[in-house]
């Protein structure tokens, strides 16, 4: 039987972006398909990337006073039905449990598509006084939505995520929280994932079911399409009224709480792939790369080389880096290609001539740049190069985002630009849902968000030519 | 409306152990009940204990070369049916999904009760050569079993756990792995949770559905009943044959892999409560206590006291301890009772007179012992006292375990001892399932395990008086 252990070719990115994506997720060993449609296995490498994201976010959450909890997987139909807009949004896409063992259930239970209703039921139990507020809870779990068409990471029936759910004494506190968590997501995306984002508010048509306000971070993928990478919702007191979540304030009056919810998911992994990947495979931001430095002994049969590679790796590990020495019996060229495919940010080659000179060769995954580095200060050099890889990936993505945002003033112009090259369009908008729908019908683009910086670029709606006081972004989306 | 913020009374442990347990889980704010029977909310304090257990175990798993993955939540009925013994064990207690949105599914999907079948499907895809072995995978997730009667942590329809699933080239490798992970569980229980355990092999009647061998750690609760705290299974090649998981060995022959699986769950939290708790509430082992030291300012209105308490807490935090300063407006006595209820291992009181003397007062939760400790070396003192609390809890539990193991030689004697005081019975056993069942019928006790140290205490089965070469433990169980 033939060995499968060779680095397989992937489709060039510009030839067929969708096929390139599928090739990368399979050949970098991120996922495996299963006999359950729309559900994949997250293989060790993908799960380790998710653990990296969790590590960063969980730290941010705890540093801002949030606590983790765990709510049930199943929601009784009557509980899901309590908040009208919410159930209308989710009921069409939930999976229903109807039998336990051989018994038919009296009431159907759905697998959580999101857990607002469960958090609300609990908050009604545990909140009674202003002293109980705010409640700042988060949950790491999987959720399930019965999607028709699915793609690994981008749109799965089951996905892993975190969902924050908070309750506050008043609107100001809840609005502040929703924006604080949006900022946390933007920091995760930009600083740690090297993925620049637009931050803003969603239109009513694009809001979360049951929210007063939905905020989002929107990233641009290599092909110019948008990925909604995280959302944060101000829920008002609608859920609190539906679930009777009340507290007595300092003056002993009964008030409803104001709530938020916010989440990011394994979808971010799809974003990392499509924002940074190239024709050789993944390019991972160092903050979440499971292996940050791959140390490769050159001519490892020569005396002292294998040991020198191990010693070097030990030193880098002790300096806090995630390091792997590749001592497999493959050729050096094969190893280079494999670690490139897996997006390892830095390759460190060490061979007999390097050792004689007291150096090793560092190769950046983002640019391919090589640098001979003295072994004496290798820890600092590696850390510096990893920072440079992050900055390089960010700059490249930022340049793409900025160069592919175009201003437009008429629907025909929007159509022409959208047809010529995908990207984001920036226009004014009158606020009318029918004009929003007209843009979608003409260009395929949905509204992305209304940015916080609302410096106008005109005064007329590109669709109806009516008075327009809103600045808004549009784009094709994953 | 009355404030609920007082430390409520709990039922004395010896008056009604079951009610004491229920009081503790509610009043220490570990869980909340939900409208889904058998599913509870893990509140922040319980979830933080679980995070502590995860941190320890995940470190052990990674240090021994295991990798985390994520498999789907749902299993198609046809996949569950592939291994005959396995499906017979689990089918009666699974929850079935029959509808996605408004559509009826062609094939029912069950919520995973455990994931052997999914791991096997994946292993069949990714294992083809001896170079691919061993595969050492673990998953952190929740599972669902349609239990009839439920109790928080001990028996829930949904619970959080980890499930390890490994594939090896041969029987020896798999058996070694199963025992290695049993040892990891024993180390978690004894060293970190201060909970002494018996290690051994289960009888055929008590084996996991589909296993060749099931190993377990068994702990004794305060009331003398047993808690099966973790299991590790050697699965043989039965699953590999059912799922066609084959590899070509170095000589190019096709072979089936040998597998293991092993798991511990949030049940361990029930074990911690029942092994260590007392009439004042929880007593948490320091390794998993969310708060290890509660710093309580005495007369905090006096100049310098509040600040001194904060400074002290900062110093302890910087030394790596988990610390909370309680600056709420409750009385000191109320605070003492609350932190006792929550099982905080060490209380640190600091008041005006202490500050004058340059000391603080440390109070151990396990014994109530007080020690005046100089502020100058408070970090070392606190760490030392936390180690002493662990040792104290362990010694107490160990003494109980040892004093409540009784040897017996006849079934009548077993009945009499079991009726007088619950504990573990140690006997010889002929190996016959009908004798095992006779013990259960007569005493209510099930077999716990056959310990690895098989030094005989006789030669006859207490039931049939036949030749008996097996040493075995029996006990009532949770």
Structural write-up:
Two copies of one chain form a homodimer. In chain A, helix 2 crosses helix 6. Chain A is an alpha+beta fold. Chain A contains 14 helices and 23 strands. Helices cover 35% and strands 27% of the residues of chain A. In chain A, 50% of the residues are buried. In chain A, the strands form five sheets. An eleven-stranded mixed sheet of chain A has the order 3-7-8-14-11-10-9-22-23-21-20, sandwiched between helices. In chain A, strands 16-15-17-18-19 form a five-stranded mixed sheet, sandwiched between helices. The longest helix of chain A is centred in the last third of the chain and has 26 residues. Chain A has three domains: 260 residues, Bira Bifunctional Protein, Domain 2 (BirA Bifunctional Protein, domain 2, 2-Layer Sandwich); 100 residues, 3-Layer(aba) Sandwich (Rossmann fold); 71 residues, Translation Initiation Factor IF3. Chain A is globular and about 80 Å long. The N terminus of chain A is likely disordered. At the A-B interface, strand 2, helix 2, strand 3, strand 4 and strand 5 of A face strand 2, helix 2, strand 3, strand 4 and strand 5 of B.
